Amino acid sequence: MAAVCVVPVVCGIIERSAAFLAALRGPGQSNAGLWEFPGGKIRTGETAEAALVRELHEELGIEVSVHTALTPIRHAYPRLTIELIPFICSIVRGEPHPREHAEIRWINAATAQSLEWAPADEPVLREYLDSKILPY
């Protein structure tokens, strides 16, 4: 049996006041039409935190400060298996603009639960909401 190649991927839960940022996958992307926390693949030799800073700059045009790590999630999609490594972070410079997503939106816990999330992001969202006291 062949070994499963696991792709390490980071994502950022970007907080602002009592809200956090969600990003909508666009047409032609895997998981198109589903919401996710922005981020991307870790490059060889790159730490997870450095990858997140780079990815959020590339995808949203912002600089972030990385704070708390949440539990990594392993998820098998049809074409690949990822290990999603989530971090809570905040913006230190810039205003986010969707460079690679169809839409971005500041949301709260109630709004988050009404959106359809990418499968790997669902357990991240649950852990995040369980760890926070957010206004509903």
Describe how the helices and strands are arranged.
Elements lengths: L5 E11 L2 E6 L10 E2 L2 E3 L6 H13 L2 E7 L3 E4 L4 E13 L9 E5 L1 H6 L6 H11 L5
Parallel strand pairs: 1-7
Antiparallel strand pairs: 1-2, 1-4, 2-3, 2-8, 5-7, 6-7
Can you offer a commentary on this structure?
- Strands 1, 2, 3, 4, 5, 6, 7 and 8 form an 8-stranded mixed beta sheet that branches.
- It is globular and about 40 Å long.
- The protein is built from 3 helices and 8 strands; from the N terminus they run ββββαββββαα.
- It is α+β, with helices and mostly antiparallel strands and 136 residues long.
For this entry, give a set of tags:
alpha+beta; Nucleoside Triphosphate Pyrophosphohydrolase; 22% helix
DSSP strand tally: 8
Which CATH architecture? Alpha-Beta Complex
Low-confidence region ranges: none
Mean pLDDT: 93
Instruction: Give the CA-CA distance, first to last residue.
Output: 47 Å
Give the name of the CATH superfamily: Nucleoside Triphosphate Pyrophosphohydrolase
Tell me the number of structural domains. 1
| Percent of residues in helices | 10-25%
SS class:
alpha+beta
Summarize the structure.
With 136 residues, the chain is α+β, with helices and mostly antiparallel strands. It has helices at 48-60, 109-114, 121-131; strands at residues 6-16, 19-24, 35-36, 39-41, 63-69, 73-76, 81-93, 103-107. Helices cover 22% and strands 38% of the residues.
